[in-house]
């Protein structure tokens, strides 16, 4: 009976570590994408030290989970006490680090406020200059989500260095309505939009639009994080039980 219990625990341990291995691979992939993303998302992340640090923490955590999941699987299948003890100690450190990161993210969530993005937009945005990564990224976001600025077109009226003619308002082309929401999409009425006709402009701010679009995914990410922590906790319990059961 004891041998059957130990065997069952061994395979459960392997199963839990396999999920940790997959979770680490996912985090590693997302971290690499954020850091090397050619569309300019990296520059927006780099503008905020908290986001920049978070991207590298995600990358490091993904690599560690990837490695430890692999070691945990090997330790369980081979019944190696040294690997199991090594796995338990490091998974405990990662568990505590992830818990601390979640608490810090909750505490400093106000850094991702509407005011922060409005300030960054007014400071760095260069209108239709697609050679500037920050401006090009913002234009892509506004076109894709059919939105304008952070709060609305009024955000651009406070940017004195935007190069636009006397016949145009401060609203950039990216805020003009298109038949298809992509850079290749035809404008509904570009001239009227640029001269300030509101019905040809996207009037809603991107902050609200994106927040509404990703609200479901935020809860999904939170549930996933809780799931990962639970899996790690069970993996530590099984590792200790298996460690004690191996003769």
From TrEMBL:
Q: Which Gene3D superfamilies match?
A: Tetraspanin
Under PANTHER family, the record lists: TETRASPANIN, TETRASPANIN-18
Organism (species): Oceanites oceanicus (Wilson's storm petrel)
Superkingdom of the source species: Eukaryota
This protein's GO CC annotations: plasma membrane
Q: How does it sit in the membrane?
A: Multi-pass membrane protein
PROSITE patterns found in the cross-reference section: TM4_1 (PS00421)
The UniProt keywords, alphabetically, are: Glycoprotein, Membrane, Transmembrane, Transmembrane helix
Protein family (similarity comment)? Belongs to the tetraspanin (TM4SF) family.
Annotated compartments: Membrane
A Pfam family matched in the record: Tetraspanin
Task: Point out the gene that encodes the protein.
Answer: Tspan18_0
Q: What is this protein called?
A: Tetraspanin
Where, by residue number, does the polypeptide cross the bilayer?
12-36, 56-77, 84-108, 217-243
């Amino acid at each position: 009976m004891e041998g059957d219990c130990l065997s069952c625990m061994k395979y459960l341990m392997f199963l839990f570590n396999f999920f940790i291995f997959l979770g680490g691979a996912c985090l590693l992939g997302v971290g690499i994408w954020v850091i090397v993303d050619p569309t300019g998302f990296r520059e927006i992340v780099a503008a905020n030290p908290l986001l920049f640090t978070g991207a590298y923490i995600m990358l490091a955590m993904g690599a560690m989970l990837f490695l430890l999941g692999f070691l945990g699987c090997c330790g369980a299948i081979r019944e190696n006490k040294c690997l199991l003890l090594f796995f338990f100690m490091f998974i405990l450190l990662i568990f505590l680090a992830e818990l601390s990161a979640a608490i810090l993210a909750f505490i400093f969530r106000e850094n991702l406020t509407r005011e922060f993005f409005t300030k960054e937009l007014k400071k760095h945005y260069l209108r239709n200059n697609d050679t500037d990564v920050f401006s090009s990224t913002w234009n892509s976001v506004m076109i894709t989500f059919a939105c304008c600025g952070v709060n609305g077109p009024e955000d651009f009226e406070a940017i004195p260095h935007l190069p636009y003619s006397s016949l145009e308002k401060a609203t950039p082309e990216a805020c003009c309505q298109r038949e298809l929401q992509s850079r290749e999409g035809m404008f509904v009425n570009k001239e009227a939009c640029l001269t300030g006709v509101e019905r040809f402009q996207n009037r809603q701010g991107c902050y609200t639009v994106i927040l509404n679009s990703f609200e479901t995914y935020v809860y999904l990410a939170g549930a996933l994080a809780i799931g990962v922590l639970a899996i790690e906790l069970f993996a530590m319990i099984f590792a200790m039980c298996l460690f004690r059961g191996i003769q």
